[in-house]
């Protein structure tokens, strides 16, 4: 009878331990379910979920509903996972501390601290399984096929949101109250930033989803939106314009010599712009014998400030008579001209080889890795070329070109051979065009 009772007690103890282990595993796995859900929903593509909802796939609409209020969703996951983690640790401590402590009773050195040591051992074991089974493995599962995992877990998560909604309101209200006490204001941030999109593009390119040319064009569009027209304009010294007061034969010879398709026209001086002419319209009228005068083919020209964004100018060109704009400063003086061609080059790069018979590229890379760059090269493009975040004095001197940067750094009109160094690069004035820098040699300093 004694042995039977002892065996019965042993079986009861083993069953009790098994039940307690199962309960702890269930708590850890439920925490893992929350991790799977969180990462699946966060990683899901909204467009793909909308397509699945359109196909009446169960759970897709619920997943979109949850994602429409991300702050509530994240609060629910955080409350649930924190509660489960604490509950798992507390339950394991209550259930197993005495069992573990029993094995340390016969070790005199640590016997007085057996409960503390048992608790530490249990915490380490529970933490290990919580990290592996309740966090790492679920996250990887959630990232493998996020949309399908999201729709499978959407209903239970929505149920959880409804159950603990009072707790969410309590914690959110408490957080807002504490923030008000500390004088901290909530800041509304965009769900997706330009940096995140760029990072995703780079990751997609490495994975072979996007072509490198696609990534470059999208990044060029981002840079394009940050530019003003002064950074892409043909500067005043390089403008080829026609004076309406000159004889027609002289103007005709200039048109033939320079070979452009459009010209700004003026009277007396360049600041008195009258409009723009199209060479094609002029040749058509001449060929038909209608007119040999530039005045008959003048179109209205866009006059824009130097601070206008390139994106805004592109929109204005949609309704303009001619794809040429004159850039003026705050005093009304002409600073340069911008064409639709110039805007396209700011996005896709140099187009000289496509539709021009002449014209040197702005940047020429040499065999030794150095660059020959024109002085009018835009600072925003230079920083991209050299992977620089900024240039010294950029905010103070407000220069827009590489030549302007060198002049600001030297503090005088440069001379051929002048050099400056910054960011591991050496900038050397290779050629001057009067008072203007024509070419700069950029070499990497080792």
Give a structural overview.
With 446 residues, the protein is an alpha+beta fold. The strands form 3 sheets. A 5-stranded antiparallel sheet has the order 9-10-13-12-11, covered by helices on one side. The protein has a 4-stranded mixed sheet with strand order 1-8-7-6. It contains 17 helices and 13 strands. The chain folds into 3 domains: 180 residues, no CATH class; 131 residues, Roll (CBS-domain); 82 residues, Uridine Diphospho-n-acetylenolpyruvylglucosamine Reductase, domain 3.
Features:
alpha+beta; CBS-domain; Uridine Diphospho-n-acetylenolpyruvylglucosamine Reductase, domain 3; four-stranded mixed beta sheet; 446 residues; 13 strands; 3 domains; 17 helices; five-stranded antiparallel beta sheet
Strand content is 5-15%
Q: What is the count of structural domains?
A: 3
Estimate the helix proportion, in percent.
55-70%
- Structural class, by secondary structure, is alpha+beta
Rg (C-alpha, Å): 36 Å
Q: Would you identify the regions where 5 or more consecutive residues have pLDDT less than 50?
A: 354-358
Secondary structure blueprint with pairings:
Blueprint: H1 2-43, H2 46-54, H3 60-67, H4 70-102, H5 114-144, H6 146-163, H7 165-181, H8 194-206, H9 212-225, E1 234-235, E2 242-243, H10 248-258, E3 262-266, E4 273-278, H11 279-287, E5 298-299, E6 302-305, H12 310-317, E7 324-328, E8 334-339, H13 340-348, H14 352-355, E9 363-365, E10 371-374, H15 379-386, H16 394-397, H17 402-410, E11 419-422, E12 425-433, E13 436-444
Parallel strand pairs: 2-3, 6-7
Antiparallel strand pairs: 1-8, 3-4, 4-5, 7-8, 9-10, 10-13, 11-12, 12-13
Helix pairs in contact: 1-4, 1-5, 1-6, 2-3, 3-6, 4-5, 4-7, 8-9, 9-13
């Amino acid at each position: 009878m004694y042995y039977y009772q002892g065996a019965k007690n042993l079986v009861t103890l083993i069953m009790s331990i098994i039940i307690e282990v199962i309960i702890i595993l269930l708590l850890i796995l439920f925490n893992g379910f929350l991790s799977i859900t969180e990462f699946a929903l966060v990683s899901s593509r909204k467009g793909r979920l909308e397509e699945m909802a359109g196909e009446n796939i169960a759970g897709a609409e619920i997943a979109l509903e949850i994602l429409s209020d991300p702050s509530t969703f994240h609060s629910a996951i955080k409350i649930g996972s924190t509660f489960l983690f604490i509950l798992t640790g507390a339950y394991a401590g209550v259930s197993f501390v005495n069992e573990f402590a029993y094995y340390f009773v016969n070790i005199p050195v640590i016997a007085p601290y057996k409960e503390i040591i048992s608790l530490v051992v249990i915490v380490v074991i529970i933490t290990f399984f919580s990290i592996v089974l309740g966090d790492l493995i679920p996250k990887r599962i959630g990232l493998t096929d996020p949309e399908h995992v999201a729709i499978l877990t959407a209903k239970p998560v929505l149920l959880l949101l409804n159950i603990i909604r009072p707790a969410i309101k309590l914690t959110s209200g408490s957080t807002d109250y504490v923030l008000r006490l500390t004088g901290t204001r909530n800041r509304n941030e965009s769900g997706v930033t330009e940096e995140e999109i760029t990072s995703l593009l780079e990751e997609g390119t490495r994975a072979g989803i996007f072509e490198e040319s696609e990534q470059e064009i999208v990044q060029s569009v981002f840079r394009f939106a940050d530019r003003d027209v002064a950074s892409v304009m043909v500067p005043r010294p390089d403008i080829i314009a026609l004076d309406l007061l000159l004889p027609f034969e002289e103007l005709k010879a200039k048109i033939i010599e320079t070979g452009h398709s459009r010209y700004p026209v003026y009277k007396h001086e360049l600041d008195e712009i009258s409009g723009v002419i199209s060479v094609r319209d002029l040749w058509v009228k001449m060929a038909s014998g209608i007119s040999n005068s530039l005045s008959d083919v003048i179109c209205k020209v866009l006059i824009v400030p130097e601070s206008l964004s390139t994106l805004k100018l592109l929109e204005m060109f949609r309704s303009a008579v001619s794809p040429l704009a004159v850039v003026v400063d705050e005093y009304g003086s002409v600073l340069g001209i911008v064409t639709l061609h110039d805007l396209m080059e700011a996005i896709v790069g140099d187009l000289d080889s496509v539709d021009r018979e002449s014209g040197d590229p702005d940047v020429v890379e040499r065999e030794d890795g150095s660059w020959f760059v024109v002085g009018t090269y835009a600072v925003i493009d230079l920083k991209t070329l050299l992977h620089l975040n900024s240039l010294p004095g950029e905010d103070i001197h407000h220069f827009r070109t590489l030549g302007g940067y060198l002049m600001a750094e030297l503090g005088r009109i440069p001379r051929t051979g002048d050099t400056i160094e910054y960011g591991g690069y050496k900038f050397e004035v290779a050629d001057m065009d009067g008072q203007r820098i024509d070419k700069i040699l950029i070499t990497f300093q080792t």
